[in-house]
Amino acid sequence: MSGRFKSEGDWAVARLSAARGRTSAFLSAEEGEAAERLRADHHRGSQMASITQRWDLSPRSGRGRGAEDLSDAALDARARLDRAIEAVGPELSGLLLDICCHLKGLEEVERERLWPARSAKMLLKAGLGILARHYGITGRCARGTGIRRWRDADARPTVSPG
Predict the structure, then answer these.
(1) Would 45 be classed as within a structural domain?
(2) Is 160 contained in some domain?
(3) Where do the DUF6456 domain residues begin and end (predicted)?
């Protein structure tokens, strides 16, 4: 995790992405990065342009359009968030939004949804794996996450005339 967020120590994804002692981290680097991207898009998408006059800033000349840039960036972030949530599907999207964007704890989510203990942890890993694949960030760290096949990719069955 990059340390960009104030409450990162309390964030469930940050705790699960950190290696502790001799054990490796529960979440892979790709899954952690996918969670950060989802959270960043949620944060950017929730920003609104200021509609009041601001006396503390000097006018910007030629550097941007101010509120229009913020609105465009927020709209782009909202569109990326919508595509990501659609890619994850309705079964896991609420869980990812609660944990990654609304910073709820795993136990809190399990209690609210009446789930068994430690079930949110496994579903979070599955959802972040799907999200990492959607973002195109899988395969950067080799951890044996590729699709396993019982035959070679170029193997084709042959049919003999009978």
Answers:
(1) yes
(2) no
(3) 12-136
Contacts of 32 (CB under 8 A, 6+ apart): 1, 13, 14, 16, 17, 25, 128
* pLDDT tens, position by position, 106-144: 999 999 999 999 999 999 999 999 999 999 997 644 445
What separation in angstroms does the CA of 76 have from each of 31, 68, 104?
22, 12, 25
Nearest-angstrom CA–CA distance, 97 and 42:
9
Q: Which two tokens stand for residue 140?
A: 């950067």
8 Å CB contact between 32 and 2? no
Q: Is residue 157 part of a domain?
A: no
The Cα 41–Cα 50 span in angstroms is 19
Residue 127 lies in a domain: yes
**Structural domain harbouring 33:** 8-53+63-135
Q: Which two structure tokens, joined as six digits, stand for 157? A: 């069955």
CA 147 remoteness from chain centre:
21
Q: How many structural domains are present in the chain?
A: 1
Coil, strand, or helix at residue 23? strand
